[in-house]
């Protein structure tokens, strides 16, 4: 139970990665300003979180089961919170999907949207009425730079994040009238076990029904380039947790928060040309015409991006 003066923070998707790190970072706040409710679909996967939390578990951090794809689970989770009072909702639960479109079933695509889009909508719908009554609250959504700029072979995942960006951009206007803040956290590549395993798995997969050229472009061109980008520009879950903490502690939190300033020029390409040709042609050339040059550039960037610069990129300000 939260102590007087503590803000109640509910976080989805805390079994690993970014969600775990945000939960632990807030629960270990030196001033003990937060009572953290960390949630996950399967509580059998709680061990990593409890190990990272240490002695704050049972004090400033508690666990609840939550499946964001289930209306009943969402309602039950919020009902288990005292007075249904949540000051800060952090929507982190999400799934990825990578590969040639022809190899992805419609059911797989629906699964991504069910978690990444409708899962967030369910959570906001459930907590928003109480926040409106109190005229207070902060909703944080873990989006992605892919919600701002499309990335080849990430078509469906990107679409789910674009949908979330549009939804939140619309909701933010209404919520402002009720003194409820809405913030998007937009990381680029993040080093997590999930991302590593997904990249390894897709590299080994066969893609029946997909033409040989597309498979070759995916495995021999996209995947090596993606690995270069991860190594040169990737952040850690701890970086994203620090950025998220700064956002919720800001007196005037921004709506959009790119966690990695190295991505700012990439996103800017899209808005520099209203026809869209500049960004599409740039990414085409980088991937298919200047692959070796891109590899060299990423290698140089990896050397230049010292830990000092990486620390500077985590601040939303």
Description of the structure:
This is Retinol dehydrogenase. InterPro entries: 17beta_DH, KR_dom, NAD(P)-bd_dom_sf, Sc_DH/Rdtase_CS, SDR_fam. NADP(+) binds at residues 13-41, 67, 161. Keywords: Lipid metabolism, Membrane, NADP, Oxidoreductase, Sensory transduction. This protein is α/β, with parallel strands linked by helices and 317 residues long. It is built from twelve helices and seven strands. α5 links the parallel β5 (137-142) and β6 (180-186). α1 (17-27) packs parallel to α2, α3 (71-79) packs parallel to α4 and α9 crosses α10. The chain is globular. It starts with 6 loop residues before the first strand and ends in a 5-residue tail after the last helix. Mean pLDDT is 90; it is low at 307-313.
Dominant shape:
globular
Report the strand count.
7
The radius of gyration is 20 Å
What is the helix content?
A: 40-55%
Oligomer status: single chain
Tally of separate helices: 12
Low-confidence stretches: 307-313
Structural class: alpha/beta
Q: Roughly how many Å apart are the termini?
A: 33 Å
Estimated share of beta-strand residues: 5-15%
For the largest beta-sheet, the strand count, sense and barrel status come to:
7 strands, parallel
Report the order of strands and helices.
EHEHEHEHEHEHHHEHHHH
Catalytic activity: all-trans-retinol + NADP(+) = all-trans-retinal + NADPH + H(+)
Domain Ketoreductase: 7-193
Keywords: Lipid metabolism, Membrane, NADP, Oxidoreductase, Sensory transduction
Pfam family, one: adh_short
């Amino acid at each position: 139970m939260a102590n007087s003066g503590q803000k109640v923070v509910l976080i989805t998707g805390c079994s690993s990665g970014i969600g775990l790190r945000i939960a632990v970072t807030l629960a270990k706040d030196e001033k003990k300003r937060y009572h953290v409710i960390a949630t996950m679909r399967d509580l059998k996967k709680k061990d990593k979180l409890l190990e990272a939390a240490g002695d704050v578990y049972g004090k400033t951090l508690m666990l609840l089961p939550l499946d964001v794809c289930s209306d009943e689970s969402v309602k039950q989770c919020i009902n288990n919170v005292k007075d249904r009072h949540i000051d800060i909702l952090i929507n982190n639960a999400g799934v990825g999907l990578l590969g040639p479109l022809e190899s992805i079933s419609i059911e797989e695509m629906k699964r991504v949207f069910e978690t990444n889009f409708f899962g967030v909508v369910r959570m906001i719908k459930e907590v928003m009425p109480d926040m409106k009554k109190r005229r207070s609250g902060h909703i944080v959504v873990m989006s992605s730079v892919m919600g701002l700029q499309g990335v080849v072979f990430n078509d469906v995942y990107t679409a789910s994040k674009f949908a979330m960006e549009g939804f939140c951009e619309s909701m933010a206007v209404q919520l402002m009238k009720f003194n409820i803040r809405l913030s998007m956290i937009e990381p680029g590549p993040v080093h997590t076990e999930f991302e590593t395993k997904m990249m390894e798995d897709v590299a080994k997969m066969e893609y029946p029904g997909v033409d040989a050229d597309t498979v070759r472009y995916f495995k021999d061109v996209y995947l090596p380039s993606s690995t270069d980008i991860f190594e040169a520009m990737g952040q850690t879950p701890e970086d994203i947790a620090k950025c998220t903490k700064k956002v919720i502690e800001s007196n005037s939190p921004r709506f959009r928060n790119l966690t990695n300033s190295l991505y700012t020029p990439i996103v800017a390409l899209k808005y520099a040309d209203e026809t869209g040709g500049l960004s599409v042609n740039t990414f085409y050339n980088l991937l298919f015409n200047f692959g070796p040059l891109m590899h060299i550039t990423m290698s140089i960037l990896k050397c230049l991006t010292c830990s000092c610069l990486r620390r500077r990129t985590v601040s939303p300000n």
